[in-house]
Amino acid sequence: TQLLEQSPQFLSIQEGENLTVYCNSSSVFSSLQWYRQEPGEGPVLLVTVVTGGEVKKLKRLTFQFGDARKDSSLHITAAQPGDTGLYLCAGAYLGAGGTSYGKLTFGQGTILTVHP
Amino acid sequence: KAGVTQTPRYLIKTRGQQVTLSCSPISGHRSVSWYQQTPGQGLQFLFEYFSETQRNKGNFPGRFSGRQFSNSRSEMNVSTLELGDSALYLCASRLEVNQPQHFGDGTRLSIL
Question: In terms of Cα–Cα distance, which of B47, B46, B93 is closest to B71?
């Protein structure tokens, strides 16, 4: 059974501060996605990382994929109240036959609150 | 381009009843996956369908079942509902293997 550990579970910060969310596993991912979910809505895809060591930027958000493809991080610079939400990492693991067949394993999520 | 559409958005049932949830994927997507989201367990994978065939299944009892139609629309059925089945049920679709999944806004199921 693959487990995905996401930390921290809760983050409460002031507007303008920086933060980092971590996602770790003992297994290798074939790909990893980061999603953001707001109350009453489904998760919205932020980014997909596939290559070990990959870094992707989305405005003030920076996503890193570990060299061994077992961990990832999301860094937000100068957080704003509009960044408030639930952030989820989700990994696709290679199964028998070399594909993950649509199964994503999710971390428990990080509830981020940015105060004005 | 329309996203993933799930109906109904909200549903209230009583223990012992059964329920059917519907999911229409993004146009052109042939893979549909279902997830259950609860505060205690987070998001857990139920099953995935591709071209009307179930390709992968999570660790849920046989009361949870699904199917996919030739137009890629999918339905999920839960029989003999239990209080613990109260959750947000999310459907996701993707274009091809190893492509990211895109989620609908879910069906909120409450069991009384």
Answer: B93
